[in-house]
């Protein structure tokens, strides 16, 4: 079995002080770095995804509903869209960008980011194709936010046929009160939930 670690959307705009901050985002970044440092040999690949918005339509709103529309965040080429500084220091095998021209929550909507100056390149491999081309058959999913992009990525990973685990302590949710229902949904879909211990 060949396993990849998917680090979802650990970006300054989603961490404390960012445009759309998730409480605990910086702590999640630190914990992921510790996890990768001690367990890098368990993974055939370590992969990041990033929101990388150029013109995502009504995904951005001056009057967001925080369900389908949001304040401006993770604009391609800006500091807020870069990887969290701690995550940027990790040795990763590939980086994927999503949401250039439409809303995108799942990492499986993302294409390989060939350069940090990419302002519209849609030619990169989709995540599922990249994983299959590297003979990956299972994924661990971590990052932000548990109840949005981590959720969508995990559900799509199962749909794509990958063995899927969410490491719960390496995520943080926008709405803490919804986490029990989220975990029930993920389990029902076939996602395994594990802690760091």
Characteristic terms for this protein:
single chain, 197 residues, alpha/beta, Rossmann fold, 7-stranded mixed β-sheet, 5 helices, 7 strands, globular
Query: Please, how many helices?
Result: 5
- Helical/strand content category: alpha/beta
Give the N-to-C terminal Cα separation: 21 Å
What is the total number of structural domains?
A: 1
Largest sheet: 7 strands, mixed
Based on the coordinates given, report the CATH architecture.
3-Layer(aba) Sandwich
State the fourth-level CATH superfamily.
Answer: Isochorismatase-like
Contiguous uncertain segments of 5+ residues: none
The number of strands is 7
Give the helix proportion (percent range): 25-40%
Summarize the structure.
The protein is an alpha/beta fold. The protein has 5 helices and 7 strands, in the order βαβαββαβαβαβ. The protein is globular and about 45 Å long.
Fold and architecture overview:
It is a single chain. The chain has a single domain (3-194), classed as Rossmann fold (3-Layer(aba) Sandwich), CATH 3.40.50.850. It starts with a strand and ends with a strand. It has helices at 25-39, 85-88, 127-133, 146-159, 179-189; strands at 3-8, 45-51, 94-98, 111-112, 138-144, 163-172, 192-194. The protein is α/β, with parallel strands linked by helices and 197 residues long. Helix 4 (146-159) packs parallel to helix 5.
């Amino acid at each position: 079995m060949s396993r990849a670690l998917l680090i979802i959307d650990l970006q300054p705009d989603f961490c404390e002080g960012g445009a759309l901050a998730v409480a605990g985002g910086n702590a999640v970044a630190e914990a992921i770095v510790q996890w990768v440092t001690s367990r890098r040999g368990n993974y055939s690949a370590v992969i990041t995804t990033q929101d990388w918005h150029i013109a995502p339509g009504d995904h951005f709103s001056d009057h967001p509903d925080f369900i389908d529309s949001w304040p401006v965040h993770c604009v391609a080429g800006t500091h807020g869209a870069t990887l969290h500084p701690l995550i940027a220091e990790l040795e990763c095998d590939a980086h994927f960008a999503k949401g250039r021209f439409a809303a995108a929550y799942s990492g499986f909507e993302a294409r390989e980011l060939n350069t940090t100056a990419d302002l519209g390149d849609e030619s990169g491999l989709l995540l599922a194709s990249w994983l299959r081309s590297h003979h990956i058959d299972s994924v661990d999913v971590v990052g932000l936010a548990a109840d949005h992009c981590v959720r969508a990525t995990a559900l799509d990973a199962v749909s794509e046929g990958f063995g899927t685990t969410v490491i719960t302590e390496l995520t943080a949710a926008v709405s803490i009160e919804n986490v029990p229902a989220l975990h029930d949904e993920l389990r029902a879909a076939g996602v395994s939930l594990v802690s760091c211990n």
